[in-house]
């Protein structure tokens, strides 16, 4: 009996030890995973701090002071290299992008009447120079070459409707105009699978005279008021390359048109046409970009246009200009 109870006690002790040890290790595991979560949470919070306040976040992350000091030294060196005569250096030219240096001078390059065989060439040049622009496209051409429209949009440019047919007979009645306009809008939306903003350009611009022989002299004043009431912004330009007129084949004249047109203006919308025969316009484009950049212009696009910029266009009569005749 004594022997039996001895064995029983031994068995109970063994069971007790095993269960106790097991539950202890469970608790440890539990604490450990809790700890991990806490650490992870702390780390994430630190990351947020780092985003909000880079310096503080960075300092928190550096446990190794030596490494931190090395980093500080590097920063100092960097500052010394870039500073000339105590003046803050301008960012690299390449930094004048959409996210880059905020200049008070702005340029919106616009290309009308595409897509054509010239459009890919224009896109290559823009890409090479890290510039984004806006393309006001003709619906029926876009339908034929949706891949170019898609490429344009995918490379960061904005694609907006211009007209479906670009036939000035659209200016006969409100009905003929809106039929054509909505069709153009639909084509762009269907290709890109987006809802385009209510921004477009009238064929010939808002103060065109081509409409005179269709809807008459009072047609554009009435149409512009009507489309404004519908919430649209129609965009004209304050600098023209002249590439839709007799200068289209003369590089010097087009360069002169642009640079004279931009003179004393710190906010410009430049009119160009990516029609297939405008090879000379494509040839001057790199010089136009480089010079405007040197003059301090920041390249902007309607893709991420701000309300402030749109209002500025209205006040400069580049957008929603009232037509009085
Ligand atoms: Zn046009």
UniProtKB/TrEMBL annotation:
<dbReference type="GO" id="GO:0016810">
    <property type="term" value="F:hydrolase activity, acting on carbon-nitrogen (but not peptide) bonds"/>
</dbReference>
<feature type="compositionally biased region" description="Basic and acidic residues">
    <location>
        <begin position="58"/>
        <end position="88"/>
    </location>
</feature>
<feature type="region of interest" description="Disordered">
    <location>
        <begin position="58"/>
        <end position="91"/>
    </location>
</feature>
<feature type="domain" description="NodB homology">
    <location>
        <begin position="105"/>
        <end position="300"/>
    </location>
</feature>
<protein>
    <submittedName>
        <fullName>Peptidoglycan/xylan/chitin deacetylase, PgdA/CDA1 family</fullName>
    </submittedName>
</protein>
<dbReference type="GO" id="GO:0005975">
    <property type="term" value="P:carbohydrate metabolic process"/>
</dbReference>
<dbReference type="Pfam" id="PF01522">
    <property type="entry name" value="Polysacc_deac_1"/>
</dbReference>
<dbReference type="InterPro" id="IPR011330">
    <property type="entry name" value="Glyco_hydro/deAcase_b/a-brl"/>
</dbReference>
<dbReference type="InterPro" id="IPR002509">
    <property type="entry name" value="NODB_dom"/>
</dbReference>
<dbReference type="InterPro" id="IPR050248">
    <property type="entry name" value="Polysacc_deacetylase_ArnD"/>
</dbReference>
